[in-house]
Write a structure and sequence with these properties.
By secondary structure, the protein is mostly helical. The protein has a domain of 25 residues. The protein is 57% helix and 0% strand.
Length: 76
């Protein structure tokens, strides 16, 4: 019985670690999918659509529009 104790402890630790990895990975993907769905429902634009050359960049406020490069004619 004493010879099997270290093996039992190691196997239990491996099982606990495996279960934690599976659950934490599932939770992470669930949160990711929730955010994707909510972003799609709310019609939010991502970073590939919003940036310095984006047409939606100038629509935040009049003050930022006047002080930004949106008030000037594009070059090039």
């Amino acid at each position: 019985m004493m010879n099997q104790l270290p093996l039992l402890v190691i196997m239990t630790a491996v099982k606990i670690t495996l279960i934690l990895v599976v659950f934490l990975t599932a939770i992470a993907y669930t949160v990711l999918m929730e955010r994707k769905v909510l972003g799609f429902i709310q019609l939010r634009y991502g970073p590939n659509r919003v940036g310095p050359s984006s047409p939606t960049r100038c629509s935040w406020s009049a003050k930022s529009w006047v002080s930004s490069s949106c008030a000037t004619a594009p070059t090039g």
